[in-house]
Amino acid sequence: MIAFDAAKFDYGQGPILLDLSVNLEPGGFYFLTGPSGSGKTTFLRLCYLDLQVQEGIQTLFGEDVVGLERDAAARMRQRIGVIPQVCRFLDHLSVRENVALPLDVTGRRSAQRMENVDDLLTWVGLIERSHSSPRELSGGEMQRAALARAVILSPDLVIADEPTGNVDREMGRRLLDLLVELNRMGRTILVATHDLDLIRATKSEVPTRVLRLSQGRIVQAGSEL
Ligand SMILES: Nc1ncnc2c1ncn2[C@@H]1O[C@H](COP(=O)(O)OP(=O)(O)OP(=O)(O)O)[C@@H](O)[C@H]1O
Hints:
This protein is α/β, with parallel strands linked by helices. It contains 7 helices and 10 strands.
């Protein structure tokens, strides 16, 4: 699904990821951990082609993505749903319209797909908030709206950056339950988190792998913490 081999990345002020070799299998549920500043967000941005490695090999969905042109990267990104650390919405649009935005951007909006939007809003428990402004949502509700938006194009891969960082434990579990459900439907999931309790709780539901970032490398910790 995603593989790196001896990949390097820096923002121009010294290496952040300096010898990245890891292989994420299709259908897997992966947690990414590591100290603050170890490069978790950077790694995720590489995975969803928001950044590119400067050296080494990266493949995504079996294709070489090093030096990929912007348009080709944008097409590939349609197969990836991203829940960023800070969820941004267009405040002048309703929650429903925000979730539908990827359909508009890719020219796929139709009456039937808008039914999918409503199904997704029901799935994440926000159907009652469909016509609210995103400004009226709580942190946990925003995360769930972001999840609905991330999966509206039926992505093969879902990436979440600290999705439970700003929500209470119960809301964090709820969000993880939704990600577990997606994984059971065959989606590959990659979640960056500091929350070891959350990892333990998820492991009791579904087989997971924990990847630990340390000193610019991924230490593949397998199923152990
Ligand atoms: N856009 C950027 N330009 C320059 N340096 C950056 C940029 N983004 C991140 N960095 C630096 O890269 C390093 C890794 O940052 P990153 O956000 O990937 O770490 P992280 O593990 O996700 O951290 P946290 O757990 O605190 O969110 C840090 O030293 C950070 O200061």
